[in-house]
Predict the structure.
Amino acid sequence: MTCPICRRPTTEVYKPFCSMRCANIDLSRWFDGTYTIALSATEDAEGDGGTDNALPSDGDESDTTNW
Ligand SMILES: [Zn+2]
């Protein structure tokens, strides 16, 4: 078996990686991915919930002032 990060032979202690360093690299990569997904998910939720019921009365007002 080889380390998925640097392709060196794995160590029994840090399986499936060769060293603590490569294990940490893989962990941080995985964490970064989930963090980015969570961030975009919250952004989407905020965009959907931000619907204001503002009435467009500006056009009517300008019509009344015309005559
Ligand atoms: Zn490695």
Summary: The radius of gyration is 28 Å.
